[in-house]
Amino acid sequence: MHDKQDESVEALIEEFLTARATRKPSPHTLEAYRRDLRGIATLVGEDSTPPLPLDRLMITALSPRVMRAAFARYAAPRAAASVHRAWSTWNSFFTFLVAEEVVPGNPMPAVGRPRAPLPQPKPLRGENTPEELLAAVAREDGRQRDAWPERDVAVLALALCAGLRLSELLALRVASLSGRDGERRVDVAGKGGRPRVVPIEADLDRVVADYLDSRRRRFGVRSVRPDSPLLVDRRGEPLRRGGLQYLVESCYRRAGVGDRVPRGARLHALRHTFATRLAEDGASAAEIMRLLGHASLASSQTYIEVTAGQQRAAVRSNRTNRALAGLAGGRPVGPRG
């Protein structure tokens, strides 16, 4: 085995994160990896005799038995989804160490892993909320300093009508929109290195074109070169994560729909609205999977199941249906023998 066996767990964690950084994950994702790795390793160190800090905890100490005990402690106060994510992070960490010949094998298959529940869709509440949001943001707002409604509407429309994630929006270039009239599309650098192509309709294409025209007027023709970032701030600089999140929040406030946005799904609520409406309009799980860039069909199926449940609840609440219960005398209605 490699002489890196003599390195501390802390040093190997940082080496793993450096290797992961070449895949260009978001800073948020990298920090989540670090938190999961250090959290479990800290518990292992605390259980050692004597207790060891991470810079003195050796990788050889992480046997299957030790990892099971640490995960049992880690899982006690946490939700299954958090434990599942930590397990996956540690599995990737050990896979990296095996490939680097630091350890002979991966102990994680011997550590129990809870089944992570699929996240439930969190679309905007209210049947007409997306339309109200777009209409409100499109209007000039005299209270706004340096208002740019064309840009703001384009951001919302790309999330609502193409289902793009935050990171995907930020990665777009002017040339990401291409194709002839009637065959327009947006090329998306998807999550996990899975690129995809999303067809765009004429209305969305027109919204983006209006935004680019307004950008030429603001910053000149050179600002919309094909390799330029598609989304920029009011100074013409590439829009960044925090700026995009603030922009969407401000759009909700201006439209007065903040109370219709699910907690913890500010920009993602727009993507979920896109997917939910696809399901309502009869799209299959496979179609939703392709358009949203899901890694598994199960994630896409949740939109169809939730939509079907909502439709059944709406039928159940119909007053005529409730009247039938009285006619049937509370007995099930069905074929008689």
Helices and strands, with pairings:
Elements: H1 9-21, H2 27-47, H3 64-75, H4 80-99, H5 129-138, H6 149-162, H7 166-171, E1 177-178, E2 185-188, E3 196-199, H8 202-219, H9 241-255, H10 268-280, H11 285-292, H12 297-316, H13 319-327
Antiparallel strand pairs: 1-2, 2-3
Pfam family, one: Phage_int_SAM_1
InterPro entries: CB, DNA_brk_join_enz, Integrase-like_cat_sf, Integrase_catalytic, Integrase_recombinase_N, Integrase_SAM-like_N, Tyrosine_recombinase_XerCD
Keywords: DNA integration, DNA recombination, DNA-binding
What's this, in brief?
It is built from 13 helices and three strands; from the N terminus they run αααααααβββαααααα. The chain has helices at 9-21, 27-47, 64-75, 80-99, 129-138, 149-162, 166-171, 202-219, 241-255, 268-280, 285-292, 297-316, 319-327; strands at 177-178, 185-188, 196-199.
Give the CATH superfamily of the largest domain.
Intergrase catalytic core
CA distance, first residue to last residue: 75 Å
Q: Return the structural class.
A: mainly alpha
User: What is the average per-residue confidence, as pLDDT, rounded to a whole number?
Assistant: 86
CATH topology of the largest domain, what is it called?
Answer: hpI Integrase, Chain A
Domain Tyr recombinase: 119-316
Keywords: DNA integration, DNA recombination, DNA-binding
Protein name: Tyrosine-type recombinase/integrase
Domain Core-binding (CB): 7-98
Keywords:
Tyrosine-type recombinase/integrase; Integrase_SAM-like_N; mainly alpha; single chain; DNA polymerase, domain 1; elongated; 3 strands; CB; 337 residues; hpI Integrase, Chain A; 2 domains
